[in-house]
Specification:
single chain; alpha+beta; 2,3-Dihydroxybiphenyl 1,2-Dioxygenase, domain 1; 2 domains; 8-stranded mixed β-sheet; 4 helices
């Protein structure tokens, strides 16, 4: 689905930071049919059908991770709300050329996330279709604290989402719109797994994607499992970046 802008308090952009951007680019282009193009400031944009779908940046510490950015009209004001709510500013608001302004934060449990104030670039230009990002969620051990923090920063509230026998699921609401999710950690997560944001990609064929990931040097951390809305798998790319893929049930796919 083509997107031209995002309302404030809506996840709008996901960037993979990797210690080996070239290897990461090879993996995702092979897995999802993406291509790449350079961006201002030395980064890389992943493209799907010549539309920007996600970003790629070098990770100074060498640790690969996907990072979710949330749209804001005033990134400095968001930074103040983060610190007031008990979070931390990891990278203060700064210009990204004329594309916009960005900042990097950690919530009160240490999970990194970003805020993006648009300039000429609003965020991902295509979402919610195979090969594109379809969802972002916080993975937490403390639902109440997580709801309180993001409520103070973005004004989000939560509602119960789809549930299964594995764990409860909740959704973020912004002005009565569902904008993301909250997944509670259960016994399947190793002890000490920190709170984090997770990026989820839509795919056409879960089994085929899993097989191709292995051929490209990635590995499957969990799955495939029936998530109720489709078959999902948790995958790690060859540079250490973890993400989720989901093959949505046909009746739930956007036209």
């Amino acid at each position: 689905m083509r997107v031209r802008g995002y309302a404030p308090a809506t996840p709008c952009w996901s960037v993979l930071s990797s210690g080996d951007p070239a290897a990461a680019a090879d993996f995702y282009c092979g897995l999802l049919g993406w291509t790449t193009t350079p961006t201002d400031g030395g980064g890389t944009a992943f493209l799907l059908r010549d539309l920007v779908v996600a970003g790629l940046a070098p990770a100074p510490a060498g640790r690969a991770a996907w990072l979710t950015y949330v749209a804001t009209d005033a990134v400095e004001a968001t930074a103040e709300l983060v610190t007031a709510a008990g979070g931390a500013v990891l990278a203060p608001p700064a210009d990204a050329g004329d594309r916009g302004r960005a900042a990097l934060f950690a919530d009160d449990a240490g999970a990194p996330f970003g805020a993006w104030q648009r300039g000429r670039f609003a965020g991902a230009q295509v979402v919610d279709e195979p090969g594109a990002i379809c969802w972002s969620e916080v993975v937490t051990r403390d639902l109440g604290a997580t709801v309180a923090f993001y409520g103070k920063v973005f004004g989000w509230t939560e509602q119960a989402g789809t549930s299964d026998a594995i764990h409860d699921y909740h959704e973020w609401l912004s002005t009565n719109r569902v904008v993301g999710g909250i997944s509670e950690m259960d016994a399947a997560y190793p002890a000490g797994t920190p709170q984090h944001w997770r990026t989820i990609l839509s795919i056409d064929d879960c089994a085929g994607t899993i097989a191709r990931a292995g051929e490209l040097g990635g590995r499957v951390l969990a799955g495939p499992v029936d998530a109720g809305i489709g078959f999902a798998a948790h995958i790690m790319d060859p540079t250490g970046g973890a993400f989720l893929v989901i093959e949505m049930l046909p009746e739930l796919r956007l036209p």
